[in-house]
Amino acid sequence: MKSTLIAIAFIGFVLSSCGNAAKQKAIAKKQYKYYCIMHPSIGKDKPGVCAKCGMQLVERDEDK
């Protein structure tokens, strides 16, 4: 019984983690001209710094 509950909890954790990854990919799809290499979802259309870590934003490669 105890192992069944642990297995169910583990499966729930894995499924919820997959949902977060999909959400982060959707956020990262918004293309800014400049972005933070540590936080790709953070960006601007002009040079600046990351709002989370303060790193300099780098220009996105247009080939990707």
Automatic annotation (TrEMBL):
Residues 1-21 form the signal peptide. It holds the Pfam family HMBD. Residues 33-59 form the Heavy metal binding domain. Keywords: Signal. This is Heavy metal-binding domain-containing protein. The keyword Disulfide bond does not apply. The lineage of its organism: Bacteria, Pseudomonadati, Bacteroidota, Sphingobacteriia, Sphingobacteriales. The keyword Signal applies. It comes from the Bacteria.
